[in-house]
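Board work, copied verbatim: Uridine phosphorylase
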Amino acid sequence: MASGPGFSDEKNETLCESESTVYVHNPHLDGMKDDFLYHFNLGTSTHNLPAMFGDVKFVCVGGSPWRMKSFIEYIAGELSLEDPKAEYPNICAGTDRYAMYKIGPVLSVSHGMGIPSIAIMLHELIKLLYHARCTDVTIVRIGTSGGLGLEPGTVVVTKQSVDATFLPRLEQVILGNTVVRSTDLHQGLAEELLQCSKDLGQFETVIGNTMCTMDFYEGQARLDGAFCSYTEKEKQDYLTKAYESGVRNIEMESSVFAAMCQLSGLKAAVVCVTLLDRQKGDQLNSSHEVLHSYQQRPQILVGHLIKKMLQASASSRS
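↓ predict structure ↓
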């Protein structure tokens, strides 16, 4: 039965009261004999979802299939669960839309690029966790971003995801009506990630707001797209306003991620490394090797968090 605290289709929708259960808010699911998760090629009548995924406690999502396979190999080594060089089959091999990997209590899923792509994935991921009867799930998006006023390679843990006008909200048109959803993330989890970075002592990590845009070029005030109707000064004035409002990095998925996780009762965080300072340029000039090392930083940080949480859970049971 679809369940969860009621929510309003008025102006704002509120956080689920409990974070132990994964909620769906759709009474129509109750009357469905089978729920086929099309873009995952998984279904309630074709797969035993509780047996396959019921032990999941951590979900890590990121843009590219390669990055998410790399993460599952990394976490397998960190948790000493299997040989990191072992073959990890793509659970979603029956579709070319997303990739999914699992090791122990950790699920790793790609989400593509931009709000529409991650939103589709999250609808099916949330239903997957619900059908699998998962509890106490922590979910983290890892990725890359453009920084504001930060040295390249700095990791940003998102406090709030804000839109292009610097407001912490996601606007979505449903049946012709604009629905506004909150984009707050779990502050306790953000602080724990910051502490994990201090424990590691390997790279700079900050907590700040993340601006989520609808595209990579004009929406992010770039000067190098196919179209540009503003000046360098106008770009810099806009980015200065963003920085002064608390924005420390820019990407294209955090708002819908924050909104949907909040509605589902999922404890969520966004961890992105900055590849450049957007106030100093638009294009990446660092070497492939440097950029690759930067991209490892979110998975190192999240891997440390998962290891720390699992150790704490084991200690509390002993």
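The mean pLDDT is 92.
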